[in-house]
Write a structure and sequence with these properties.
By secondary structure, the protein is of the alpha/beta class. It has 14 helices and 13 strands. The chain has a 7-stranded mixed sheet, sandwiched between helices. Helix 13 packs antiparallel against helix 14.
């Protein structure tokens, strides 16, 4: 398969801009040099821009899950009671990680549905917790949770509020201070459109103050925060990934965080309207549908093993399948980072062609017309 001629529409990793790719081919440099110190200091400042905070930030050579574990193991204690809100695979992952380091309880809601705030309030009223966790944008279901409203309930009870922002930071509105977020994680290969393999964490003042000793050696978040503040890393970092990450962050700043978020919202709207135009049913409830990734039910008679391989092999378009309990029942289209409306046109032209070929005819060109109406 020729990946240089493939339209990558996964929910991460996403398309990478040539500027970012080019950086990956530069000569190796030492990570204890003055030059790399300048790189780290710039990344620190650019991360604060991406997270829209002036607080402490860290970058970790490890995927988003490493960032989540670093945040959770460094802020929670073994006797802490933690309420983990789940309505998808990645909320469940936070619960699984939190269970390793605290007394974690799961408050589960149906996949593809919004968190029921009244049920959450009643649970918080009934038990004494120290922290609440939430996956802001549930990539597995393409649903965005009301992080601002959950934050109000956490703030009401003075609870630590720890958030998975892996597919929201840099693509959706995130207001750490206003929402009372004490810790939040992003993944390099999502809304920032950098190569996979890095995660970053931002902390509130309280989030930094509660960082504890005795964490797993490599995932000691305080060590990562403190060393990045000085333009350094505690251990040997993924140097070329960090160079590419810096370039992707520079591109975010050049575009403007608000402009990136607005453009991503347009992409989300276009993807949903295109799917509706050819009769695809949205998996999550519309009121909580994500702007960074969309999930659609397969029409009756359409099998995942027929659909996605043909998209890939015959049209060089890659989309994601379902996960967990909805594996094989839905497909997901990522539209974050440097994705464009033109990428969506290519994707939906292929979707229409494959559906027609496997015996599910659609109104030809209807999805393309829906997208074109939103092109300026």
């Amino acid at each position: 398969m020729d990946y240089e001629d493939t339209t990558l529409m996964l929910a991460g990793p996403v398309k990478i801009h040539p500027r970012v790719l080019k950086v990956m081919s530069t000569p190796s440099i030492g990570h204890r040099t003055s030059h790399f110190r300048e790189v780290c200091l710039e990344i620190r400042d650019l991360l604060r821009y991406a997270f829209d905070t002036e607080g402490a930030v860290a970058v970790i050579s490890g995927s988003g899950t490493a960032g989540l574990e670093a945040m959770l193991c460094s802020t929670l204690r073994v006797d802490d009671r933690v309420l983990c809100i789940t309505n998808g695979k990645f909320g469940e992952r936070m619960y699984e990680i939190a269970s390793l380091y605290s007394q974690a309880d799961q408050l589960d809601f149906p996949w593809g549905k919004a968190v029921n705030l009244q049920v959450l309030k009643e649970r918080l009223d009934a038990d004494a917790y120290r922290a609440v966790t939430l996956c802001h944008n549930e990539t597995s279901t393409a649903a965005t949770n009301l992080a601002s409203e959950v934050g109000k309930l956490a703030s009401r009870d003075d609870l630590l509020y720890l958030v998975d922002g892996i597919t929201s930071v840099g693509g959706l509105p995130v207001e750490m201070e206003a929402w009372g977020i004490d810790g939040i994680v992003l993944g390099s290969q999502k809304c920032l459109a950098a190569p996979a393999g890095l995660s970053a964490v931002a902390l509130s003042e309280r989030g930094y103050e509660v960082l504890r000793d005795g964490t797993p050696y490599y995932l000691d978040l305080k060590a990562h925060v403190d060393r990045l503040g000085k333009g350094d890393t505690p251990y040997t970092p993924a140097i070329h990934l960090l160079l590419a990450f810096r370039e992707a962050l520079r591109m975010l700043r050049e575009e403007g965080l608000r402009s990136r978020i607005e453009r991503t919202a347009l992409l989300g709207k276009a993807c949903r309207e295109a799917g509706r135009a050819i009769g695809l049913g949205l998996y999550p409830d519309l009121e909580c549908a994500s702007d960074t990734v969309s999930a659609f039910w397969y029409p009756d008679g359409v099998k995942d093993e027929q659909f996605r391989p043909r998209l890939r092999d015959e049209h060089r378009v890659m989309v994601a399948g379902g996960q967990g309990s909805i594996r094989g029942r839905v497909f997901r289209i990522g539209h974050m980072g440097v994705c464009s409306l033109s990428d969506l046109l290519i994707t939906y032209a292929a979707v229409e062609a494959v559906l027609d070929k496997i015996g599910h005819p659609v109104q030809k060109g209807a999805s393309l017309e829906a997208i074109s109406r939103l092109m300026v």
